[in-house]
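Q: What structure does this chain adopt?
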Amino acid sequence: MKPPAINYQWTTPDGTPVTIRPIQAEDRDIELAFVRGLSPGARYRRFFSTVKDLSPQLLDRFTQVDFPSEMAFIATVQAAGAEIEIGVARYAPGSVATIAEFAVVVADDWQGHGIGRELMHHLLVVAEDAGFEHIEGAVLKSNSQMIRFCRELGFAVKPYPDDAQLVLVAKDV
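A:
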């Protein structure tokens, strides 16, 4: 099933126009450039490893979503006549049919502009419409910025089962 045709313009508090839309198979190049452009710290906080590049298989996985069981929204801006990805939020099926697992990352230079919040708000609405009752994610215990962000969005934060380096953030949708 194709993702919903949800494509809209949003403006950051500083007046920058941003497009929020579902990721598509044609977004391979901008997704790859986005991940390559993340700082080593941001990549580690997102992937829990020192990923430098996405394999072709992972790139396919990230750009070819199986809606409604999974979804990914990207935030893009126009720069020098090209579309540049500056953030992404996604969910995928969790261990139980009613639970979705999520991830969100915003380019280092774009953090603090509300992009992650806008992406997550949209993702939560679509996850609920897709029939999920809960959404959760694993966050590095040392990632205080993400933990604060999740708490601000109403997520509960608790120890992650069997991994002292992580916390579980969870919310009803």
